[in-house]
Design brief:
The chain is of the alpha/beta class. Helix content is about 40%, strand content about 15%. This is SDR family oxidoreductase.
Length: about 325
């Protein structure tokens, strides 16, 4: 597999997951437009790609506005002559329970994740169509968007919306040879470093050691580099037949998420009145109601964290989430 001669944009690629994607795309031969809101962080990412023998330029701008999308695509075309791949990774978190979440908390996350994905993809598709040689759209989703997560109304809405857009784009862009897929990563990030549940995995990784098998296999939890290979594959010619999919990856685990499907169907001649539903709903569907959120198995005894140290942050008011996508 090779991405030689191709050009890619990776939003939110100054550090973390986005940087891992940019480095892997460059390693496979693509020229990369790096994006971050911090000039020094973006410059360091470009330097890292250059040091590894790759080619990259930086665009420092917040994702969301159409103007940023235009700058990103223009940078790719002006610097590398074309655009072939877009990875929409940029994101922010404003975690609060529903009754504490402000309009600003909601709008900020929706603007970067959802609107930013929309504006960047719209601009990239214009370039793809002008070139007439297809293209690859890879949008970063989240288990939170698939199943929900306590304290993440805004993030769940954005990530679920991204997968919905991907499925729509797969239909609209098929004839142009443009694929659109979502990646659902589960990887160590700055947030998981503060969670006692993941401490032994994060500490092992920081020492340059492999994470325990419990995390890599049972939880599908690994490093940013574990996710990057899937991004590179979906960007390649080998993935030309893959579109409209949500693919999960983390640690040693690869998953294909299903599209929402009806799990049970019942009929009632003349339709369903409120009284009919009151009489029969739980009998029909009570044992098939769908779960929400993700549940994590108890840690094995040997991986149990020690008692919280004085410098440890207070526990968050929600279940652990291992996948904030963004810089």
């Amino acid at each position: 597999m090779s991405l030689a001669g191709k050009s890619a944009i990776v939003t939110g690629s100054g550090r973390g997951l986005g940087l891992a994607y940019a480095l892997e795309l460059a390693r496979q031969g693509a020229s990369v437009v790096v994006n971050d809101v911090d000039q020094s962080v973006a410059d360091e990412a470009v330097a890292a790609i250059h040091a590894a023998g790759g080619t990259a330029v930086a665009v420092v701008a917040p994702v969301g506005p159409t103007e940023t999308a235009q700058r990103l695509v223009a940078a790719a075309v002006e610097s590398f002559g074309r655009l072939d791949i877009l990875v929409t990774n940029a994101g922010v978190l404003r975690d609060k329970t529903l009754w504490k979440m402000t309009d600003e908390d909601f709008d900020t996350v929706i603007n970067v994740h959802l609107r930013g994905t929309f504006t960047c993809v719209r601009e990239a598709v214009g370039a793809f169509r002008d070139q007439g040689s297809g293209g690859r759209i890879i949008c970063i989703g989240s288990p939170t968007g698939q199943r929900g997560n306590f304290g993440q109304t805004n993030y769940a809405a954005a990530k679920a919306g991204i997968v919905g857009m991907v499925r729509t784009w797969a239909l609209e862009l098929r004839k142009a040879g443009i694929t659109a897929n979502a990646v659902i990563p589960v990887a160590a990030t700055a947030m998981t470093e503060t969670m006692p549940y993941f401490r032994s995995a994060v500490e092992a990784d920081s020492r340059g050691e492999a994470m325990p098998d419990f995390f890599r296999r049972d939880l599908g939890f690994g490093t940013a580099d574990d996710v990057a290979g899937l991004v590179a594959f979906l960007a390649s010619d080998e993935a030309a037949g893959v579109t409209g999919q949500a693919v999960g990856i983390g640690g040693d685990r690869l998953q294909l998420w299903s599209h929402p499907e009806a799990v049970a169907t019942e009929y009632h001649r003349g339709g369903w009145s409120a009284e009919d539903l009151g009489d029969r709903f739980m009998d029909l569907f009570g044992d098939r109601l769908q779960s929400v959120g993700e549940s994590f198995p108890p840690l094995p005894e040997e991986l149990q964290p020690e008692e919280p140290r004085p410098e440890d942050p207070k526990p968050r008011e929600r279940q652990p989430a291992a996948d904030p996508a963004g810089s």
